[in-house]
Amino acid sequence: MVLPTNSDAKLPLHAASTQHTGVAARRQQPLRRRLLRFVLAAVVSAAFVQYFRLFAHLLQTNDREDVTVPLRAQEYLDKCRLLSVKPGPPPDFHARTRSDRFVPGTPPTIITNATIWTGRANGTEVIRGDILLHGGIIRRVGHFQDFALDEYADLTRIDAKGRWVSPGIVDLHSHIGNDPSPELNGSDDGNSFKGPVQPWLRALDALNTHDDSFATSIAGGTSLVLPGSANAIGGQGIIIKLRPPTDRSPTGMLLENPYEKNRTLYDPAVAFRYRQMKHACGENPDGIYGFTRMDTAWAFREAYEKARQIKQSQDEYCARAVQGEWSGLGEFPEDLQWEALVDVLRGRVKVQNHCYETIDLDDMVRLTNEFKFSIAAFHHAHETYLVPDTLKAAYDHPPAVALFATNARYKRESYRGSEFAPKILAENGLQVVMKSDHSVLNSRFLLYEAQQAYYYGLPHNLALAAVTTTPARVMGQDHRIGYVSEDVVLWDSHPLALGATPQQVWIDGIPQIEKPYTVEKPSSFQKVPKTPNFDKEAKETLEHDGLPPLEPKRAKTDTVVFTNVSSVYLREDQSIRQTFSADASDSLSAGLIVVRGGKLACMGPATGSCASYLHATQDDTEVIDLAGGSISPGLVTVGSALGLEEITSEPTTIDGYVLDPLSESIPDIAGGSLGLVVRAADGLQFGTRDALYAYRYGVTTGIVAPQGYGFLAGLNTAFSTAGRHKLEEGALVQEVGGLHVSIHPRGKPSVSTQIAALRSILLGKTTGELGHWVNKVREGETPLVVAVESADAIASLISLKGEVEHRLGRAIQMTLIGATEAHLLAKELGQANVGVVVSPTRPFPDHWEKRRIMPGPPLSETNAVAILLAHNVTVGVGVVEAWMARNTRLDIAWAALESNGEIQKADALALASVNVEKLLGINTDSLQGDLVATHGGDLLDFSKVVGVISPRRGLVDIF
Ligand SMILES: *[C@@H]1O[C@H](CO)[C@@H](O)[C@H](O)[C@H]1NC(C)=O
Ligand SMILES: *[C@@H]1O[C@H](CO)[C@@H](O)[C@H](O)[C@H]1NC(C)=O
Ligand SMILES: *[C@@H]1O[C@H](CO)[C@@H](O)[C@H](O)[C@H]1NC(C)=O
Ligand SMILES: *[C@@H]1O[C@H](CO)[C@@H](O)[C@H](O)[C@H]1NC(C)=O
Question: Which UniProt keywords apply (predicted)?
Fold first, then answer.
């Protein structure tokens, strides 16, 4: 036989197959021609030798009349053979000396004197030494004194100075590129709404490389981009590296080239790659298709039954085909729409399942056992920690659990979400992953999720693994990512220390930050941070089925003494001053704080006069040892709907949205367009879980404005986050503060119309209820609070303020909130005496009006807060969603850490206390402000809040 020399030898086979569509057509062909074609096909096959005997057998039997061999028999036999190939790297993968992603010309790099968290040994291995990056992979880790580096020309040397290096961060759940920032018409390709079951869709087909967040999320080396959760089966995910690809194409971002691009790299006959498939249960698919849970469960079962039938017919077909029993077999049974789901049943696709509640988790686990497939991970999965046994009953292996740290209660399904879920799941031996769901959370800060999980009790080795090795393993990619194997990050501190920031990120051996800005961190930040014990709280969470009582307990005695206090920060004339500090290592110098009736009665060193309280009145005195802790002002939150909502997306649990006189007509009964000024105080809800969580983590006051999508919001109010109802003493801090409007591009009415309306109400003859409050603004009594983002709108507001002040002959108070682009006008804002509530502190360019962010180190020298402060702007900080309020202490600590020492602790505390109050028109007497006691550190550390001293309410609360 003569082997064909044509390198396209496979083509005639495909060409032939398009001409013949059935057995009948084939029967009409002369037998000899059919045989010839068949022999050719066989010869062409690379597997000819392997199948030689089989074909010999076929040739012999072909003179029996009833045997028909499909024209594409060889192709089918190849397919049959591939059915049993298991995914994983090719056998010689670990012998590679160069990555398939290597960019020619990339010089080798050695990072010396690094503290390397390798990810190995269950996340406990740490090596002090050097790392050699060459050929797009990590060639060596260790000490290289005895190792010839001479062979490496152009070696780039980086001195890590003992700092931490980790593998590149791995995000198991992102929509980066599918739902790009800023959001514009037609850019959101996250969800298809064409049907509840669409395993054939591919996120790769919707990967937009012009997403602004690629450049900021770069610290995360790799992301799994998943279709959205609108469908029960939403389609196939893709794994990308965030480095800009040299060919600028979406395909170039893939962790591994698709087979279609370069088959030679990774021969599917040797090893398959795992694919990823999105599934979703519960509210999202149910709601979109008007389904009940029963309907969605059936949609899954119907789809899996279809896939099962195809798989079974393939297996039966192949069992006969490899025996040469072609008679009556026909074509290989397959269907492009269903092949990915069939591959799920073959264990070759990692199922990533958005699934929150016990009911849905249970449904999915039954489904896995009915159809015999495994789930790689449950995502969001807010109730998994309540039902570890359900997860353990899943087919083949328990799914991993991919979580947010503290983002919960945004919908009913997340109502029982707990910060202790990572800890509890790990204690049950389940794999924990922290994920961003970018842009739900900014994947740039995925490590922060791990830091919080660690703070709330996930062991440090598992916390770091939760954003590196564990997600890499869960997606079946740990042969190349998750360990120190391809991508590494050099951090400015221990990665679990708050605010850990990359000094450089190498992806495929290429440094990703062109000019990294670094800040000096205290040396204590090089060690794994100390964290409190939350065993009691975690146990209570389980005892109460995820809804532990959060109301604080009042101290039983009138006198409460805090001992072992290292520092005290108090309010003084609209600022914060450190009024006491002790050397934490010297217990004799530690402070004593005596509180009576909720008011400070004595403060000083333990050896001073305050000690008499401790000795004299032991029986009616509660003594709390703060173990070197601190007393600081209770923090104030603003910016979210905290106080007006329980579950954000549940209309019956929220105050709702105000009518807007600029874009809709206000009914007479509500006062008409000048008569309706809504007061947030009228809609306050007390005892919401987010308010109580905020209280437990040091945020004792909430300021909230009426919620709206329009121009005029109304009057804000300030309330105690621990209040039980509005009429309780001290629950309402101040009924009315500032008047809120907002200036945003929404299409209609225009931004210029909104500014004109503001000019009109400030300078025109505004009457009615609105006129009453506008007068107070004109008199400088009530601040005008403007929600605004873009620098251009801010510039117009600065001009308008000047115009109004010129006409009125007096100054008015103006505060901007949100103000993502305010840093561009820091000087002008300072000169115009316009205050700014930066909200959130770590910006994200999700909308066009916010695209010019000041990202903070390592991408910029400092952050917006520091820039504004440097220009004498009064700066407060805020949050966007109610669950974020509890993390205010971490936000201000982080903002201070980024400022290169410009923002001291007292300044940081002021950002979320006195400054916010001043900017929002809330007047708190210095002596009336709440104080927060922390154990084992100050409020800006990973300490634990153990009590609140409330002069206003005349009590001490103990947690
Ligand atoms: C991994 O670490 C966790 C937490 O430190 C521990 O509970 C677990 O037993 C370890 N697993 C193995 C296999 O060593
Ligand atoms: C490594 O860095 C640490 C911290 O800067 C330093 O104390 C030590 O001397 C360095 N070691 C070497 C071998 O350079
Ligand atoms: C495919 O990969 C091989 C091995 O890396 C390489 O030599 C070849 O040039 C690649 N071909 C294409 C078309 O990229
Ligand atoms: C800010 O205020 C200080 C003190 O009043 C002054 O010295 C400084 O020049 C001001 N800075 C700016 C940028 O205006």
Answer: Membrane, Transmembrane, Transmembrane helix
| Atom in ligand 3 nearest the alpha carbon of residue 100 | 5
- Which residue in this structure is represented by tokens 């329009």? 710
Of 917, 914, 896, give the one whose Cα is nearest residue 905. Answer: 896
Residue 81, pLDDT score: 92
Give dist(CA 397, CA 411) in Å, integer.
Answer: 29
Q: Residue ranges of the chain with pLDDT lower than 70?
A: 1-67, 145-148, 220-221, 259-266, 584-585, 587-588, 615-618
pLDDT at 398: 98
| DSSP-derived secondary structure letter, 682 | G
Q: Which residues line ligand 1 (CB under 6 A)?
A: 122, 459, 461-462
At residue 805, the 3 state secondary structure works out as: helix
Mean pLDDT of the chain: 91
- State how far the alpha carbon of 510 is from the alpha carbons of 103, 504, 653, 762, 864, in Å: 8, 10, 50, 55, 29
pLDDT at residue number 610: 87
Same fold, 551-634+929-959 and 635-928: no
- What is residue 863's three-state secondary structure? strand
**3-state secondary structure at position 321:** helix
- Please state the φ and ψ torsions of residue 831, each to the nearest 5 degrees: -65, -35
Q: What is the pLDDT of residue 617?
A: 58
Ligand number with the minimum distance to the CA of 267: 3
Domain ranges in the chain are 93-167, 170-483+510-526, 551-634+929-959, 635-928
Q: Please give the CATH topology (third level) of the domain spanning 93-167.
A: Urease, subunit C; domain 1 (2.30.40)
Helix/strand/coil (H/E/C) assignment for every residue in 250-313: CHHHECCCCCCCCHHHCCCCCCECCEEEEEECCHHHHHHCCCCHHHHHHHHHHHHHHHHHHHHH
Its CATH architecture, for the domain 170-483+510-526, is: Alpha-Beta Barrel (3.20)
Residue that has been written with the tokens 């409190």 in this structure: 532
Nearest CA to ligand 4 atom 2: 872
CA distances from 863 to 315, 671, 855 (A): 60, 44, 6
Is 262 touching ligand 3 by the criterion CB < 6 Å?
yes
Write the class of the CATH domain 551-634+929-959. Answer: mainly beta
- Counting from 1 in the atom list of ligand 4, the atom nearest the Cα of 831 is 14
Pairing between β-strand 575-581 and β-strand 432-434 as defined by DSSP bridges:
unpaired
User: In sequence order, what DSSP letters do the residues of 108-171 get, joined into one string?
Assistant: PEEEEEEEEE-SHHHHT-EEEEEEEEETTEEEEEE--TTS--TT-TT-EEEE-TT-EEEEPEEE
The total of other beta-carbon atoms located within 10 Å of residue 493's CB is 23
User: pTM here?
Assistant: 0.92
Ligand number nearest CA of 465 is: 1
pLDDT on residue 157: 94
Ligand nearest to the CA of 827: 4
